[in-house]
Amino acid sequence: MKNKPARFRKNLLSWNETSNKRSMPWKGVKDPYKIWLSEIILQQTRVEQGRKYYESFLEAFPAIGDLAKAGDESVFKLWEGLGYYNRCKNLLKTAREIYFEKGGIFPDAYEDIIQLKGIGPYTAAAMLSFAFNKPYAVVDGNVFRVLARIYGIDTPIDSTEGKKYFTDLAHQNLDKKLPGVYNQAIMDFGATVCKPAKPECNNCIMNSFCAAYLNGLVNHLPVKDNIIRKKIRHLTWLKISAGNKVLIYKRTANDIWQNLYEFYLVEKEEKTDWNIESVKDFCNHVFSMNPQQINILPKTEQQLTHQKIKAQIIEIDFTEAPGTLHAQQWVEEDVLKQFAFPKLLAAYLDEP
DNA sequence: AACACGGGGTA
DNA sequence: TACCCAGTGTT
To answer: Which GO terms describe its biological process (predicted)?
Structure first.
């Protein structure tokens, strides 16, 4: 009787050869640049959501030098809508570091690769196994779930102890001769068979030795003890125009949507019901100027992981730029779409 | 160790 | 609504 890691490994690779139908453009690719790009895009992002971004990035920047030499705004524009924009900032930083300081060559040692911005333990292991065929086990959401169930581990996966435990377990299970194939297979298995909800236990080739299945714990594993608190924010964006120019600001604060653009923002603690009179009063009070025209759009909402955004856009036309206004950048209406905006504003620009 | 960071899919 | 997704960086 083989030990459990060996049994799991054998079954996983067998499933991979006979039943794994998952197809992705970066699968089997060895080019470190493409592996890296795909892994950054896929952090906390579903494969189906990331796929088109991978294609468009590769089309715009076929090699790392193309990305390294690109301007910030054009890269953020390509990233627009994908979320977690810090990834984009770090993508650029690392591309430039590799291209301009390391001769365009990705490091292939864990200690070197982990130091690059945007690359943590998961991405480092992915690059080392996929691009360099080195025996590092990836530990992502799929791996936590599969191993927690197969081995019946209830240590919280978001605890320090849990991360260490599952990393060690993942390494014990890894096929050291085929690390890339194994890593790809366990993630595909987690995504298509050992799914978070309604896993395919009845058709699972592991069910004869899966601790969670045998003990009726499938829906209780893995354990996560992180509690997310959501706060509500009330945002009003004043789209201020003067002539054919529109006022925009780049978000720089340590907050959501950093490095993206927005209109003049008014944030309040409580919900506000704007009307023509209150907008006029606001303009006269804050800008010392009477608006020529006001258009109050319907309220909209967006759910983020830690925040619920209640937003409203108000279009305001002035005959000329208010002198008292702290202006950052006036741009022509028809070049607005060259800038990257948060989803809510991008949707407005697409469908005003 | 705890928390923030987006947008979309699923139940 | 609540949870999750090829996680990482900051405090």
So the answer is: base-excision repair; mismatch repair
pLDDT tens across A80-133, in order?
999 999 999 999 999 999 999 999 999 999 999 999 999 999 999 999 999 999
- Window 294-323 of chain A: CB closer than 7 A to strand C: 303, 305, 308
Q: Is A211:A217 a contact under the CB 8 Å cutoff?
A: yes
Whether nucleic acid strand C comes within 7 Å of the CB of A199, the answer is no
Taking the stretch 231-290 of protein chain A, residues with Cβ within 7 Å of any atom in nucleic acid chain C are: 254
For the CA atoms of chain A, what is the radius of gyration? Answer: 25
Q: In chain B, which nucleotides are within 7 Å of a protein Cβ?
A: 1-11
Nucleotide nearest to A341 (CA to C1'): B6
* Residue A254: CB less than 7 A from any atom in strand B: yes
- Strand-pair category, A264-268 with A231-242: antiparallel
CB A124 within 8 A of CB A114: yes
Measured distance CA(A43)–CA(A36) in Å, rounded: 11
User: Which domains can be identified in chain A, with CATH numbers?
Assistant: 31-130 (1.10.340.30), 231-350 (3.90.79.10)
Q: In this predicted model, what pLDDT tens digit does every residue of A195-209 receive, in sequence order?
A: 999 999 999 999 999
pLDDT along chain A (352 residues), means of 10: 88 97 94 98 98 98 98 98 98 98 97 98 98 98 98 96 97 98 98 97 96 96 88 96 94 94 94 95 94 96 94 96 82 95 96 73
Distance CA A114, CA A132 (A): 15
Q: For chain A, what is the mean pLDDT?
A: 95
- Dihedral, CA of residue A70, residue A73, residue A74 and residue A78, to nearest 10: 120
Phi, psi of A196 (to 5 degrees): -60, -50
